[in-house]
Amino acid sequence: MSSHDLFIIVLFIGILVAFTPLLGKWLANVLQGEPTWFSRLLGPVESCAYRMAGVDPSREMDWKKYLAAVLLFNAAGFLILFLSLLCQKWLPLNPAGTENMRWDIAFNTAVSFMTNTNWQFYSGEGPEGISYFVQMTGLGVQNFVSAATGIAVMAALIRGLKRKCASTLGNFWADLTRSTLYFLIPISVVVALLLVSQGVVQSFDGPTTVAGMDGVEQVIPNGPAASQVAIKQLGTNGGGFFGNNSTHPFENPTPFSNMIEMLSLLLIGCACPYAYGVMIGKRKQGWIIFGAMMLLLVTTIGLSQWAEHAGNPLFPGLEMLEGKEVRLGITNSSLWSVATTASSNGSVNCMHCSMSPLAGGIALFNMLLGEVIFGGLGCGLYGMLMFAMITVFLCGLMVGRTPKFLGKKIEAREVRWSMVGVLLPGIAVLAMSGLAAATEVGRESICNAGPHGLTEILYCFGSQAGNNGSAFAGLSVGDTPFYSLLGGLAMLLARFGAIIPVMIIAGSMVSKKTAPPAQGTMATDNLMFMILLVAVVLIVGALTFFPALALGPILEHLLLYSGSVL
């Protein structure tokens, strides 16, 4: 690795850390209803939205009503998008003549974008893809509101931890509207304009047909890409306007656009722990949660970079450039692969299937940890807070003290539901991967034999259950409803299998009294707690997935160094 490569990594991490307090304070102000420059400017739009929907933003909800609102809103979003995909051929703004989507792929796509996963069983452009109208009114809308849903659930949990002897957690409709209008939209506008300045396409023109150097006609796609790319990166949505995603020069044309998009993957995820610290009045604890996430991120970046730059031992001195854009290089490709899987984003600027076994395994492991390395918007924080409660409980057992978090007792109810939220996504991954590996219809889609084929299956369901959406492209999943339907079920189980426990925990914690720390009470705002928290995350991840990883990327890595492929 050259000094230039090291500079890129240090610059990337440094910018993330520098922007964390700025965006975190902004997000906290929005969620607490404090006036901001954007709220003063767009306040009438917010009021109009409430009047049209018949919502009273000052009327707070208990956890049951808040959760019901979340489920109802997401169900409506799924239904609208599903019907739009089935009928897109007859809808306006379809200059490419995009056909109606097959029903099972439409189901998977609607679930995918509603759950903020954005896995795609189709190519982003062409007749088999998505029309401009559905891109903007369907996928684009879900990119905003699915991210805002995660932020709203995070806000409800924070209020549950902060408030004393209360019963309400805020208003879902107000949290959803404000986080979209005053936070996500302004940042997306800025990023979209920066991308347009670098040459990212933003047009309503249809595809352009040109003759290539060999005389064969090529169809060059156009479309409103920049506006979609901005929120797909910022909202940890992923997906691709173009089939090749951010390897495509129309979506990611320059080194500057590459850095902007790569930073966008993690900016808001980094801001969430700081916003948490501001909202509970303990910024130090926010930094401790941030530190635990950053420690995991930096470790995985280092391992991935080492694996990629080490190359293939059978061909010393040669870089592993298969599946990578030469204009981006190994360092940017590896850094993006870690950032997109740590943030549960899913966009790619290289083909993860072509990475070294260890680097591909790290990308997979990031997703299998359950969105806790910053993760999706809101999801990463509430996932890490469930791990924090488990950590406090385990440490309390070891020292014989009643476990407390923010002065509130952690009892059996909170621990049980934390374990459900932590383990259910993993159960979905392993159960469905096992079903795919054990059935002929599941194995028919594998393009590679041996451990790499198993990794393809694990990555498919790990990406969908991990709210990620990136693909280990060797798996041919679009030819059969098996993977589209099973993947849709995995996304639903993982998304709402975490949201429901979080809301139950929030409802339980909000009613509790707080007690000042006593002698022997475990502090949760110091370096020791951060190390224990990271250890618990890794232990749970290893116990859940090590056997599967050992048969997949770990075995493939050992075979690589032994000079064998099978």
Give a verbal description of the structure.
With about 575 residues, this protein is mainly α. The protein has helices spanning about 5-30, 35-55, 65-85, 105-115, 130-160, 170-195, 225-235, 255-265, 265-280, 285-310, 330-340, 355-370, 380-400, 410-440, 440-445, 450-465, 480-510, 525-560; strands at about 210, 215-220, 405, 410. The strands form 2 sheets. Strands 1-2 form a two-stranded antiparallel ribbon. A two-stranded antiparallel ribbon has the order 3-4. Strand 1 (about 210) and strand 2 (about 215-220) form a beta hairpin. The longest helix has about 35 residues, at about 525-560. It is globular and about 75 Å long. The two termini are about 30 Å apart.
What is the strand and helix layout of this fold?
Blueprint (H helix, E strand, L loop, with lengths): L2 H29 L5 H17 L9 H24 L16 H12 L17 H31 L9 H26 L10 E4 L5 E4 L4 H10 L20 H10 L2 H14 L2 H28 L18 H14 L14 H12 L10 H21 L4 E2 L2 E2 L2 H27 L1 H4 L7 H15 L15 H30 L16 H36 L4
Antiparallel strand pairs: 1-2, 3-4
